[in-house]
Design a protein that fits this description.
Layout lengths: L3 E11 L4 E12 L4 E5 L6 H8 L7 E6 L2 E2 L7 E4 L11 H11 L4 H14 L15 H13 L5 E5 L7 H18 L2 E6 L2 H7 L2 E7 L5 E7 L4
Parallel strand pairs: 3-8, 3-9, 6-7, 7-8
Antiparallel strand pairs: 1-2, 1-4, 4-5, 9-10
The protein binds adenosine-5'-diphosphate (2 copies).
One adenosine-5'-diphosphate binds next to loops.
C-alpha cells in the first residue's frame, strides 16, 4: 500500500465572478521512504497540493489516503517545513528542536540526545545554545528542518524550504537534507520552483504546468539513484 495516495483530486476556489481551478484530476502515489519533488511555475498549484496533503485544506473532489486509510481517519504524523522561519525566537536552537518531543512527553534525556544528534548531523554542533536571532538564515532553516524530523513523523512536507537562501547555502543544505532523509528513511514531498533542485533531491520529480484555462499537465520523471 502506498503511504500517500491522492486520487483524482480537484481543488476549486470560489473567486469574484469566476472560480479558480488550482488542481484538476490530480493523482499521486508515494511509496514509503520515497523522496518526491514537485516543480512548477508560480501559481500552478504546488502549495495547494501541499496544503491538501497536510490536511489544512479539503479537496473539492477526489480522495486522499494514507497507508490505505482515508485521511480523515488516519493517524499518520506529518512534519511541515515552509520557506519562512518558524523557530520560536525566545527559545534556543536546542530548545526549538526539542520542542516537538517536549509536547509529546518525551523525557528530557531522550529528547536532548535526539536533538543534539540531529543538530550535529546538519553541522550545527556548538550552536545549540544560540537564539535564532544569533544564527544565519541557512542555520535557522537547518533548525526548522531538524525540528520537523525530530519526532520521526511518517511524512515530511517541505514548501520551498531553501527559497530564501543564497545559491551556495542552498547547495550545502540540499546535500545535508538528502543525507538526512536517506538516513532517517523519510517519506518526503518537497516543493520547489528550481528544476535543478528538484532533480538533485527527488527520487521522482513531478512537473506541474499551468496552462491557459488552468488545466494541469503533470509529468512524472523517474531517476536512477546511485
Ligand atoms: P503555487 O504554490 O504553485 O504558486 P498555489 O497553490 O499557491 O500555487 O495557487 C494555485 C492557484 O490557486 C493560483 O491561481 C492561486 O491564486 C489560487 N489560490 C490558491 N489559494 C487560493 C485561495 N485560498 N483562494 C483563492 N484562490 C487561491
Ligand atoms: P513553555 O516553556 O511553557 O513551553 P515557551 O518556551 O513556548 O513556553 O515560551 C516561553 C514564554 O514565552 C511563554 O511564557 C510564552 O507565553 C512566551 N511567548 C509567547 N509568544 C512569544 C513571543 N512571540 N515572543 C516571546 N515570548 C513569547
Amino acid at each position: 500500500t502506498p503511504i500517500i495516495e491522492l486520487a483524482d483530486v480537484d481543488q476549486i476556489y470560489a473567486g469574484r465572478g469566476t472560480n479558480v481551478e488550482a488542481l484538476r484530476g490530480f493523482t499521486l502515489d508515494l511509496r514509503d521512504g520515497e523522496v518526491l519533488t514537485i516543480v512548477g511555475p508560480s501559481g500552478c498549484g504546488k502549495s495547494t497540493l501541499l496544503n491538501i496533503l497536510a490536511r489544512l485544506e479539503r479537496p473539492s473532489r477526489g480522495t486522499l489516503s494514507f497507508r490505505g486509510v482515508n485521511a480523515d481517519n488516519s493517524d499518520v504524523e506529518i512534519g511541515y517545513v515552509t520557506q519562512s522561519d518558524t523557530l520560536f525566537p525566545w527559545r534556543t536552537l536546542l530548545g526549538n528542536v526539542e520542542y516537538p518531543l517536549e509536547i509529546r512527553g518525551v523525557s528530557k534525556d531522550v529528547r536532548r540526545e535526539r536533538a543534539v544528534s540531529l543538530l550535529e548531523r546538519v553541522g550545527l554542533k556548538g550552536f545549540e545554545n544560540h537564539l535564532p536571532s544569533e544564527l544565519s538564515g541557512g542555520m535557522r532553516q537547518r533548525g526548522n528542518i531538524v525540528r520537523a524530523l525530530v519526532y520521526d513523523p511518517d511524512i515530511v512536507l517541505m514548501d520551498e524550504p531553501f527559497g530564501a537562501l543564497d545559491a551556495q547555502t542552498r547547495l550545502v543544505l540540499q546535500d545535508q537534507l538528502q543525507r538526512l532523509c536517506a538516513e532517517e528513511r523519510k517519506t518526503v514531498v518537497f516543493i520547489t520552483h528550481d528544476l535543478q533542485e528538484a532533480i538533485a533531491l527527488g527520487d521522482r520529480v513531478v512537473v506541474m504546468t499551468a496552462r491557459p484555462g488552468r488545466i494541469k499537465v503533470v509529468r512524472t520523471v523517474g531517476l536512477e539513484r546511485p
